[in-house]
Every structure is written in C-alpha cells, then in structure tokens.
Write a structure and sequence with these properties.
- With 254 residues, this protein is of the alpha+beta class.
- It folds into two domains: 41 residues, RNA-binding S4 domain (Structural Genomics Hypothetical 15.5 Kd Protein In mrcA-pckA Intergenic Region, Chain A); 197 residues, 2-Layer Sandwich (Pseudouridine synthase), CATH 3.30.2350.10.
- It is built from six helices and 15 strands.
- Strands 5, 6, 7, 8, 11, 12, 13, 14 and 15 form a nine-stranded mixed β-sheet that branches. It has a four-stranded antiparallel β-sheet with strand order 2-1-3-4. A two-stranded antiparallel sheet has the order 9-10.
- The protein is globular.
Length: 254
C-alpha cells in the first residue's frame, strides 16, 4: 500500500532486517503493528497507510492481466483505471476471465476478504465445451482433489435451456485459477468464465471494461462478510432466483 514492495517481496524485506517498528528491527513475519500508533520504517524511510481510502469495482474485460506491470508487455487492468489513488486488486482474475474485480487501498479489509477463514462467496457463470455430467456435478459439490489439495464443496447449478453446458458455480476459496482447474480435472474446457459476484457485490448495469466506486451499502456488505467467523457453505440452488437470473443476463457479452 505504501509502494515499497509487493506482498511477497515485502516478506524478503522483513527477513533481510530492513524494517524497523518504533526504532527496533523486526524480522518476524508475524509481527503486528497499529498504523495509528506505531512508526514503521523501511531502510530509514517512514511508511504509512493511505490517508484517503477508496473502494471500487471493475467489470473486467478479456485479455487484460490483473497486475500493475507485465514483463511481456500485455495489457493490464490498471490501464482502465485513470485514478490518482494507488489501489490494489482484492484477489485476481486470470487473463481470459471477465467480471467483478474489486480494488482498494484498504489493506485491512482486503486481507480479511482474501483470507481463507473468511470464506467469502464468489459466483461464476461458466460456459463449458460439453454438457456437465450429473456424476461430475456431484463430485464438484462434494469437493474434488487438485494438485494443491481437496477443494471445499462448491455450489453447482445448471442454467435452464443450456443443456447443462452453462452453469453457475459458487465457491468460497481463492486458489489460483481454481474454477478452471476444477473443470479441467474432470475433462472439461471452459469456453467462457465470468465472475458474477464477489461477496455479494455485482457488476449489474456496468459495461465491460468500465469501473465505478462502490456504494456505502456495498462497502458495508463487504465489511460484514469479512467479519464473519465462518460463512455458510455454498449449496446447490434448485431454482435460480430472479436476482441471479438478472446477474447472469448482465454477464453475457453484447
């Protein structure tokens, strides 16, 4: 948030002994500080959190990388954010995944929302290369094994009229390319992947590639979700609600 280093690189800075808290060198990655009362310096330079906190959401288009810079000179989502504040994505979407992508410079809330214990729900509209087999659906709903362990149960609901080639997937984990890997493991290719919602925040009414600031109600909703000790597990929905149908319709490209 202070522009010193990425989250991973920041760990190396700490371990190297370049960080001081109230004048004392700290090398423990678990060290906690209070930004309002503690003084943190990196190589002698004081750092602090942003004074003006912002929260925004983008309806991410295809072919954009969720990063500030790319070594292959590919387009990044920051090219679509002409704002002066330095913001960071809450989680990521891969290059060809579209939909809800949240940004903020509120590190505390971002960390809460991304931490596995918060179990924040994410909804995805998934288009497959062939119909989803009922047995595979049941496996996904129980959790399947990936190279980094077994997934938590997912909510899987085929969209009526698509012969089970389009489904709504609800998960609360945030593993890298998780939805794609879940289906690839079972022999499916995802033709289109669109995040419908993150923690209840949707991109309804927002054109692809556009962004807006979150409303007070949406920020409150995210804070409520982040503070929950344990969210309810995704459950299959037998009938798509009108609200979900509206979000699916809004997700389809014009």
């Amino acid at each position: 948030m202070s522009g010193i280093a990425s989250r991973r690189a920041a760990e190396e800075v700490v371990l190297a002994g370049d960080v001081k808290v109230n004048g004392k060198v700290v090398t423990s990655l678990g060290t906690q500080v209070d930004p309002e009362t503690d003084t943190v310096t990196v190589r002698g330079k004081r750092v602090a959190v942003a004074e003006h906190v912002v929260y925004l959401m983008m309806n991410k288009p295809r072919d954009y990388i969720t990063t500030a810079k790319d070594e292959k000179d590919r387009r990044t989502v920051y090219e679509l954010l002409p704002i002066k504040e330095r913001v960071f994505p809450i989680g990521r979407l891969d290059r060809n995944t579209t939909g809800v992508l949240l940004f903020t410079n509120d590190g505390f809330l971002a960390t809460k929302l991304m931490h596995p214990s918060s179990e924040v729900k994410k909804e995805y509209h998934v288009s497959l290369d062939h119909p989803l087999d009922e047995a595979h659906r049941e496996k996904l709903e129980k959790g399947i094994f990936l190279e980094d362990g077994k997934t938590a149960p997912a909510g899987i609901e085929p969209i009526p009229g698509t012969k089970s080639k389009e489904v709504v997937v609800t998960i609360h984990e945030g593993r890298n390319r998780q939805v794609r890997r879940m289906f690839e493991t079972l022999g499916y290719e995802i033709m289109k992947l669109h995040r419908i919602s993150f923690g209840g925040v949707t991109a309804t009414g927002l054109a692809r590639g556009k962004w807006r600031f979150l409303t007070d109600a949406e920020i409150k909703k995210l804070r409520t979700v982040a503070e929950k000790k344990k969210a309810s597990r995704p459950k299959p929905v037998k009938v798509l609600s009108p609200a979900l149908k509206q979000r699916i319709a809004a997700a389809k490209e014009k």
